[in-house]
């Protein structure tokens, strides 16, 4: 039995105040799993989630991974003859620096102009929470759901899902499902509902260069020492050619172009005016001849996500640093093997290292493959239908440039057909200061999940 | 009347304990003038110096510069028919980061193996302090000195002497002198006494590149955005060619090669084994065909003293930063005009900036010219004689690669012939963690200054 959207909206409206209050409590946890300083906060967030899901009527387990705990909630009362839907979200968030650029503190949520500002407001606590609310409301309304629900909320998505990845094999049975819906994606704008058919993979490493045993005086030794900053910029500058292509030998070897069917099914529209308005620049990072969305969705990249060397404080210090550092990540497209790419990048870095300079490379744990799914799968059609109904418009297909590192492994472990959905917007400032998520989207997200689950029958 | 070295050594030995105690008190002040956080510490250090010099028997004035105060001490009782010697030192020190690399805290001096470890132990509090001790001892011993003494101790040498430079014009009369001895230099090793005939000048700037209005997600926008880190490394990598030459157009135009006389007078010996032992690397930063000491002493350089962009903390953050930064300085040789070089570097940076990227350049106040003096001047001969006697060996002539930004302006304002002296050693770790200065050198420095002053007659 399908509840009308009007009834669902009424339910949401009635509970809105307490929903928002709970959402804010969720946002207040400093669940930055990548930084050991926040270990306790991560655990407290997991405990809160565990209780909240229990109170919402789900069976809940907390899986120990030796790292951030994984929350696994389920309602299997639909029965063995019904299909099983596995939903994936995460409760960890990105670091908050540069902290001084936040208008209000990142873990003290605030509403301004209908948007909730907080770290994780969008990625992924906002999307996770409307999913929770949908399950909570449905379980309150119905004796039984038309589909078995398994809901996995992990705590290390932003740092490569290392813990979850290690226990996946032992949890195959628990995770077994027909479909995997990852609620960690977005749409281009509020006028264009869309389902995400693919994401990029990711690998990451940190490197350092060292010459002298300690920092040197740039007067006494300037001209004698080869400054590691100079060596680093020289090396890093050789990682792209003048046409924006990554120069790492073999980097593009495994890239498979989109099929005609994929090209037709996916909407590559790009609104330059809106982009300029949101981000303040015109796209200029693409390889020559590649359109913006093709670049971000179907081509691999290599980015310097961080670099530093020498004095970075106030004033000036005439130092030649002993060491210079960079954090580098690559986004991968389907068929590119993370291990292969990591080896290619490392080999090339070694090759580029000037004589006398010592290179150290540290691989960041938790890489993941890219994937693309077919527009014709049942779960894609079902989610599309839900989005179309909630938005009152036809639903498009898109890809994303981001990565859900665990996605391919997880869908394989669960034996499930995968799709990505979500209501993130390009200017949510995810991973950046002043991240935000709209109250309107919290409700629409709630409706899309309610409706999708009811469409199973 | 000349006191024998034996008597001077006896005096030093007798007072050693109290001398060391006072030296440690001087080292405890966190006089990092470049960082506004330490404004109060800088002032307290100046006040301490003022009192200490008064108690040592000197007339003392504290000159307000609107920034770090300048201490001006004098003893003019030699009379108008005698020559006047202006001595220059500084009480400000370099920042201490990376703090975690210090074996003991930088402002809690400690003696290990005859070396005093503390920020400023060598540069310049150590050298400043043995100069103070020499004056203190001489004034206690003699009714009258053979030369009028003016002693200037400033508080912004490490950040370009901005305050002193602003008041120089108004202090010309007070500073008037025949000779200027800057006690902020060094020797190659303890077996080779040397006088420094020249130093390099310096200019410095900070630059930033920006594309987007805020930090971006390297998944969503990676491939669309031109990462400012990538733009920065590309720009910075173009500042040197493959032979190590600075590529800034016009950079070398004003460089005048050493004269035959200078080449003969200056010892360019370089001990590769000792260098490897001290610093852990073989010289590789020179322009092609230039020897290490020629490179550091007679050629201009461009160094990236600091750079940063994106995430630099623990773990990983998949960000494309809005901004990337670099701190750049150039060491200049005589005849290179700081203003000209700054303009050339800025023009070149503008030229290298990729379309769409916004370049901002901030010139660091307090640049200074390079200089070289003749080996035949009276003050050079007199200081050489003092060093020869104290070390019991012939004294050589060297240059330094470092800069005393105010030196040329100061010698012009005072109308004085200039020379640099000092007992810094190449592995004192100045400007770096674990800076140190030897107790033996504190005594030898004391002796050289005592002896030099007594040689005026």
Account of the protein in words:
The structure is a homodimer of 457-residue chains. Chain A is of the alpha+beta class and 457 residues long. Chain A folds into 2 domains: 281 residues, 3-Layer(aba) Sandwich (Aminopeptidase), CATH 3.40.630; 119 residues, Alpha-Beta Plaits (2-Layer Sandwich). The first copy, chain A, has 13 helices and 19 strands. Chains A and B meet through β10, β11, α6, α9 and β12 of A and β10, β11, α6, α9 and β12 of B.
Rg of chain A, Å, rounded: 23 Å
The CATH topology of the largest domain in chain A is Aminopeptidase
The order of strands across the largest sheet of chain A is: 1-2-6-3-7-18
Number of helices of chain A: 13
Going by CATH, what is the homologous superfamily of the largest domain in chain A? Zn peptidases
Number of structural domains of chain A: 2
Our measurement of the CA-to-CA distance between the termini of chain A, rounded to an integer number of angstroms, reads 9 Å
